[in-house]
Specification:
The chain is an alpha/beta fold and about 425 residues long. It has 18 helices and 18 strands. The protein folds into 3 domains: about 170 residues, Alpha/beta knot; about 55 residues, no CATH class; about 180 residues, Alpha/beta knot (3-Layer(aba) Sandwich), CATH 3.40.1280. Bound molecules: S-adenosylmethionine (SAM).
C-alpha cells in the first residue's frame, strides 16, 4: 500500500516517517510513502498559490497544481482514495478511522492533501476529493499536523504495523467504552497504590474489574460517545448501571401564575401518565407530583388508584409506568424521600422555558459536571408559567431552555419532560451496526 502526501512543506514529514513504528512498517514492506511539495507540480516561475478571488486578504492553492499532482501520483500508484484536510471536513473519530482503513486496504493507494493559507481552490477540491476531513472544530495554520494525526490513527489498523492487533481492537473508542486505566511499577507511588485487584493474579477477577471501571469512566466522562455507540443490549445494561439514579418532580405548588404572582396549579391526568411513561422509558427511578391542596391530592390518589387496580387490565405497560409516581406535599418531602432511598441528597436540576440569570446554567452536554458528584439527580419541572423564583434559587443547576430556531416556545410540560429525558439520558446512535 502506498500513501502519497502533498504538502507545502514536505520536509516536515522526514522525522515523522523515519521514527519508530512507521519506520519499521516501511522496512517490513507494510506501507510505502511518497511525499511531495505543491511546488514540485508548478511549472518554472509558476506560483503554487494565488490571491483569493473577491475582496479581502489571503492566498489559496491553485487548482492546476492539484490536478497535476493527482495525475502524477495516480500514474505511479494507481487510483487513490483522496483525502483533503480541511477544518470544514467530516470530523475524524475512531469510526471514521476504521472506515478509511477498510477502504484503503482495498484501494492500496491513499492520497492525503494538506492545505495551507486560506486553503485549496474550491473547484479542485470538489473535482478530486473523496473525503474532506477535519481533525476537530478549530483552525490550524496548515494540514500537516492533521495529516500526521490521520496517519498515526490509520496505520494502527494496517496489518503488521502495530505488533498486537488485538490491543487496537480493545483500545478506547473501538466500542462504546474507553479503555481501563493502566498502571506500572512501582506498586506505591506518591502515596498511591496500584489497585489491589491488579496484583491478585486472578485474570477473571481482573477482567471484571477492568470492565467495570472502564464502563464507569466512559459513562461519567464520555457519555456522548457511549450514547452514540451503545448498540448491543448488554452494553446498554452495563452503561445503565453506571448512570446515577435520576428522579423527576412535577411542581403544582410554588409556580408562577402571572408575572410577579406565584401560587398553585391544577393536576392533570395526562401529565401523570404521560410523564410516567417517559420516565420509565428513560430509566428514571421515580416521578413525584407535588401539590399541597387536599382536593388536588384526592384527584391524584384516585388516578393512581385506578392504575393500581382496574388499570392493570386496561393497559399493563401504563400501569408499570404509573407505578413510578408518588404524591408529595412539598419539594422538601420529595428530597427527604430520595435521600432515604439513596442515602444521599439529590442534586436539584431546575428547568425553564427561558434563559435564567443568577443560576448555574448547564447544557445537555454537561452530564459529566453533574454526575461527577455521585449523587442522585432530581429534575424539577414546573406547571402554569414555570417554577417560582424561590424554587429556582434552590437549584444547583438549571438546564438550558429547550428551543427551536423561532420565537414561539410553548411546549406542554409532558413534551418538555420527554425532550429533557431524551437529551440528557437517551441513546442517540451514530450508526446502526
Ligand atoms: C488556515 S487553514 C484554512 C482555513 C479556512 N480558511 C477555513 O476557515 O475553513 C489552512 C489549512 O490548514 C488545514 N487545517 C486547518 N485546520 C484544520 C483542521 N481542524 N482539520 C484539518 N485540516 C485543517 C487545512 O488543510 C487548511 O486548508
Amino acid at each position: 500500500m502506498n500513501i502519497s502526501i502533498l504538502s507545502v512543506f514536505p520536509s516536515l514529514y522526514k522525522d515523522f516517517l523515519e521514527t519508530s513504528l512507521l519506520k519499521r512498517a516501511q522496512a517490513e514492506g507494510h506501507v510505502s510513502f511518497t511525499v511531495a511539495g505543491f511546488t514540485d507540480f508548478c511549472t518554472p516561475k509558476e506560483r503554487l498559490d494565488g490571491p483569493t478571488a473577491g475582496h479581502g486578504a489571503g492566498m489559496a492553492i491553485r487548482p492546476e497544481v492539484i490536478g497535476r499532482a493527482v495525475e502524477h501520483f495516480e500514474q505511479q500508484h494507481g487510483v487513490a482514495y483522496r483525502i483533503f484536510l480541511t477544518p470544514q471536513g467530516k470530523r475524524l473519530d475512531q469510526d471514521l478511522v476504521r472506515d478509511i482503513a477498510r477502504i484503503i486496504q482495498e484501494k492500496k493507494h491513499l492520497m492525503v492533501v494538506a492545505g495551507r493559507y486560506e486553503g485549496i481552490d474550491a473547484r479542485a477540491q470538489e473535482k478530486y476529493v473523496d473525503l474532506e476531513l477535519s481533525i476537530g472544530d478549530y483552525v490550524l495554520m496548515g494540514g500537516d499536523l492533521p495529516a500526521m494525526v490521520l496517519l498515526e490513527a490509520l496505520l494502527r489498523y494496517i496489518p503488521g504495523v502495530v505488533g498486537r492487533s488485538e490491543s487496537v481492537e480493545k483500545d478506547s473508542f473501538s466500542g462504546p467504552f474507553v479503555d481501563f486505566p493502566t498502571y506500572t511499577a512501582p506498586a506505591v507511588w506518591d502515596g498511591k497504590a496500584i489497585p489491589e485487584v491488579l496484583l491478585s493474579g486472578n485474570h477473571a477477577v481482573i477482567d471484571a474489574w477492568r470492565k467495570k471501571v472502564a464502563v464507569e469512566k466512559s459513562v461519567k466522562k464520555h457519555f456522548e460517545w457511549v450514547r452514540s455507540h451503545c448498540i448491543q443490549d448488554e452494553d446498554r445494561a452495563l452503561a445503565a448501571q453506571s448512570i446515577p439514579p435520576h428522579y423527576i418532580v412535577l411542581m403544582h405548588d410554588e409556580v408562577i401564575l402571572e408575572p410577579g404572582v406565584t401560587g398553585t396549579s391544577s393536576v392533570t391526568s395526562l401529565d401523570i401518565h404521560d410523564i410516567a411513561r417517559s420516565a420509565k422509558t428513560y430509566g428514571l427511578e421515580g416521578y413525584y407530583l407535588v401539590t399541597s391542596l387536599l382536593d388536588q391530592q384526592a384527584i391524584v390518589r384516585k388516578i393512581l388508584e385506578f392504575w393500581e387496580t382496574s388499570g392493570i387490565e386496561y393497559n399493563k405497560q401504563r400501569h408499570h409506568a404509573v407505578s413510578l409516581v408518588s404524591l408529595m406535599g412539598s419539594l422538601d418531602q420529595v428530597m427527604e424521600a430520595i435521600e432515604r432511598k439513596e442515602g444521599k441528597r439529590p442534586i436539584l436540576v431546575g428547568t425553564s422555558a427561558r434563559k435564567c440569570s443568577g443560576v448555574r446554567q448547564i447544557t445537555y452536554k454537561d452530564q459529566d459536571v453533574v454526575w461527577k458528584e455521585d449523587r442522585p439527580v432530581l429534575f424539577i419541572l414546573g406547571t402554569a408559567k414555570g417554577l417560582a423564583p424561590q424554587v429556582m434559587e434552590r437549584c444547583e443547576y438549571v438546564l438550558a431552555p429547550i428551543e427551536g430556531f423561532l420565537k414561539f416556545n410553548h411546549l406542554s410540560v409532558r413534551s418538555a419532560a420527554a425532550v429533557i429525558f431524551d437529551r440528557w439520558l437517551g441513546i442517540n446512535l451514530v450508526k446502526l451496526d
